[in-house]
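EI: anyone free to look at a 90-residue chain?
SC: sure, send it
EI:
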Amino acid sequence: MSAVRSSTHSPTLDTIRMIEEFVQEHSGEYRRRALWSSLPRKMMYQTFKTAIDYLIESNKIALDANNAVCWIFDPELARYYMAREELRIR
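SC: here you go
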């Protein structure tokens, strides 16, 4: 991540997975603040922002032209490229 954040705002793996699942189910429906308010489990906004920053940097989500949070990760495509011998690091 580009900025060092306090450990009090570090999301757990369960929190990141919860956000991932919610965004996959509701891709493009919510902007960041509305997404945070709609999550099934509450958390501090700073913790949420840290998780969102991580998901953006890991290319799992992106913001569209209206700043809606969209799921962009394609695990099948990732597996396809990972399986290609000519693309492996030697």
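EI: The radius of gyration is 15 Å.
SC: 👍
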